[in-house]
Specification:
mainly alpha; 0% strand
Length: 166
């Protein structure tokens, strides 16, 4: 059965409607995409400056610091995007918070492990590592802010009114 106006198939009455994608999904995808571009730029600038001021140790430190920032900030957005896939489930709220909290726990454990492993390594320049990590975090926050400000999401985008069908 097709709709005569646009040729698209009409929804069948025996199938439940597909769950609507949350309005945060495109925003999070954009934040991830632009954040990766920014991390690449920070890595290049950090490696050049680290190479000038600290040699190859500075290059590796800048790359590792930027990679840590990109991975840590990507885990949160990815966990929310993964959790949003369960929007039609009756257990959505529990799954959502479980997945996001699990991502935070992974980040916490990973941070502790990296801090212990990278401490006092001869191939790490702590100043370059710290500066590239801070540049990645601040840059990611700026990207997130710009993406959210440019997204045109109404205040009640995901609301369902009493007469609406799900």
């Amino acid at each position: 059965m097709t709709d005569h106006q646009d040729g698209a198939s009409a929804p069948r009455p025996d199938q439940p409607p597909a769950p609507k994608q949350p309005s945060s999904t495109p925003v999070l995808r954009d934040a991830l995409k632009y954040g990766l571009f920014l991390a690449g730029g920070i890595a290049i600038v950090g490696m050049v400056l680290g190479g000038i001021f600290a040699g190859w140790v500075g290059v590796t430190s800048a790359l590792i610091g930027t990679l840590i920032a990109a991975v840590f900030l990507g885990i949160t957005a990815l966990s929310i995007l993964i959790a949003n896939r369960f929007i039609g489930s009756d257990l959505f709220v529990g799954l959502f918070f479980g997945i996001v909290l699990g991502g935070w726990i992974v980040k916490f454990v990973l941070f502790i492990v990296l801090a212990i492993v990278l401490k006092d390594q001869p191939w790490i320049n702590p100043v370059v590592l710290f500066l590239s990590l801070i540049a990645g975090v601040i840059g990611s926050l700026v990207v997130d802010m710009i993406v959210v400000l440019r997204s045109r999401i109404p205040y009640v985008s995901d609301a369902t009114l009493p007469g609406d069908k799900r």
